[in-house]
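Response to reviewer comment R2.3. The reviewers asked that we include at least one raw input/output pair. We reproduce the pair for Putative monooxygenase MoxC here without editing.
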Amino acid sequence: MTRQIHLAAHFPGVNNTTVWTDPAAGSQIDFSSFEYFARTAERGVFDYLFLAEGLRLREHRGQIHELDVLGRPNTLAILAALAAVTEHIGLVGTLSTTFNEPFELARQLGTLDLLSGGRAGWNAVTSSDAFHGANFRRGGYLDHADRYTRASEFAELSKQLWASWRPDAIVADADTGVFLDERGVSRVRHDTRLFDVDALFDVPASPQGRPVIVQAGDSADGRDFATAHADVIFSLHTEFEDAQEFYRDVKGRLAAHGRTEESLKILPAATFVLGDTLAEAQERSREIALAQVRPETAITYLEQVWNRDFSGYDPDGPLPDVEPDTGPESAQGFANRHAAVRSRITKLRETAVAENLSIRELVIRLTANHTFVGTPDVIASEIDRYVQERATDGFTVVGHVTPHGLDEFTDRVIPLLQERGTYRESYEDGATLHDLLGLPPVTPAVPLPVGG
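Raw output as returned:
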């Protein structure tokens, strides 16, 4: 049976790989950029657009890291505005389970879902470091080991709140107008070490029942969370054999939760560079990579790993032959264990030696190694192969320039996928994000134990 390809569109941000020096580059904070990107993705009949989120401006040596994307308005506000200028495409935002509360976030997402006609999605991420925590009341209190415990309970409680409205809870009457059937909403009670909630949820269910849940963790805990709660995984596994292995592992865990293979979609991040010939595409890929990883970017990357000043090193030279400073926090504020830092550096050195890479070439290899490079026909063929041979269910397409990074893919690759019959040609009226992704209908959440 031919499998249908699913595609998401990633708005560039919270990274160092967006090429702001490109003449076509625009703002990452003006609404016009978000609107243009959303309209392009909808023209390409994508399942959803996806916003990353940074909870704090990145810093380096105690100063704002100016080589990175700076500034990102509130994710939910952006998605709400985009809901008004789009009709069909899903709207997915990254929001932390560590620095939010279940009722508040469920209410905000539920509202977006209701007002958009069932197009909302939530990329549930965890945050365990003191750098981001310093912006919040609880600071860096959450132990790394507890982040998925909280995330799992957070997701389950959110699903309880979304499921607390019966579909027929709102009753229309010609004489009295619209009112709430008092039997249509269930009280949600939850009292554990992490959360104490006694609530009557005040947002009616949307046409899709609840927002789609996306997850991006790759650890064992992350995979367990995904198979228990997520509808989509945003993974980093893009090499074909590696992607197949990840697909088998994650999909193989679903049965333990009473789920089927099609109830969870795997959409890895994928970058692309097009050309009329392979040689042209390869040359463009090299030019884009050099623009993404400028000399100062490469040095900064190493400084953030080693936690040392490497300003005197040549980015086109070999890796520094010095030991890292494994203090309590690294240059960008992330708590790193001594062994983990040394292990990472060992792997970097092994890669550099094996491939004879300079500092800059190594950073390009790690951060700007484009997934698909070739002619539109070759890239369409590869995307189709990944899906048909169960390496992925599709991809999250990431451009290198804002807001035009999706233009070429939409104009030159999408039509070829449609010709193959493996990608939709239009949206169905009234389709929710669950429908676009081909997910099974939402089932009511199982009540959580009280006092756990």
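The domain at 6-275+375-437 is CATH 3.20.20.30 (TIM Barrel). DSSP finds 14 helices and 16 strands in the chain. Further pairs are available on request from the corresponding author.
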